[in-house]
Write a structure and sequence with these properties.
By secondary structure, the chain is α+β, with helices and mostly antiparallel strands. The protein has 4 helices and 11 strands. The N and C termini lie far apart (about 55 Å).
Length: about 260
């Protein structure tokens, strides 16, 4: 149990460090836009802080705005915000529909913990983010991709747009960019969008096939680990000395 918790902490730190080291992924940080507006035209990566761990006692509110006539789809890549309790969250992220805090898109107690939240879609072109940290922790924050989407009136997208399988329109440049921007993942599909690579093949797999691959990989790794541990124990020096003692005793008995 302790080892699993340690590995989870290590993975969260690694993801945050990797995010901080990647300077070419067009990421903006919410901490730099407190009481300000983040304007996006097609897509924008948004993270909480440039630091590995965000500070305690921190408050920040940011507005995210897309062009009129569009909606914004928020897809989380990683999430590590405080620790959840039954009633409330120690640290919390809340996402609201529009430029006010009247309609909340996140759950009643907000978003917190380490479970990856489900994607969130606005009803209009504006969303409001509110973040609050209360306690000192080793939480690393979050990172998401905000994609500008449009539902066409005529069920046909323009020539500069890519039409997802669910008829949602996104910028054509977002197709096959190794980043999911359609809510149904169709912009990274090998069959539908003509994409190449492992992500495209994985996107086209059924849920049953994905589960089978994951289970098979876990079982295979477990079997390899078991064989390695068994072999290391069988061929350990202590076992060799024990075998020599047994053989020597057997030799003395016959003498």
């Amino acid at each position: 149990m302790f080892l699993a918790k340690f590995l989870l902490e290590l993975a969260a730190v690694y993801v945050s460090l990797s995010s901080c080291m990647a300077h070419n992924d067009n990421t903006v940080y919410m901490e730099n836009y407190c009481d300000k507006k983040i304007k996006i035209r097609t897509v924008q990566n948004i993270a909480l802080s440039e630091d590995v761990f965000y500070p305690s006692g921190w408050r920040c509110q940011t507005t995210v705005e897309a062009p009129p006539g569009h909606v914004i789809w928020f897809n989380f890549h990683y999430f590590d915000v405080g620790r959840p309790s039954v009633i409330y969250c120690t640290d919390v992220l809340r996402i609201y529909d529009g430029d006010t805090t009247d309609t909340e898109l996140s759950p009643n107690k907000g978003l917190c913990g380490r479970l990856l939240p489900r994607p969130i879609t606005t009803s209009g072109n504006i969303a409001t983010f509110k973040f609050k940290s209360m306690v000192v922790s080793t939480s690393t924050g979050f990172k998401l991709t905000a994609t500008v989407q449009r539902k066409p009136d005529s069920k046909m997208c323009s020539k500069n747009e890519f039409q997802c399988l669910d008829d949602i329109c996104i910028d054509k440049k977002l197709k096959c960019d190794q980043e999911v921007n359609c809510q149904d993942n169709s912009d990274e599909s090998a069959q539908y969008a003509g994409c190449e690579g492992i992500l495209a093949k994985w996107t086209d797999l059924s849920t049953f096939a994905r589960v089978g691959i994951i289970v098979g990989t876990v079982v295979g790794m477990g079997l390899i680990l078991f064989l390695c541990v068994t072999a290391s124990f069988y061929f350990s020096p202590q076992n060799d000395i024990k075998d020599l003692k047994i053989k020597f005793s057997y030799f003395q008995f016959y003498l």
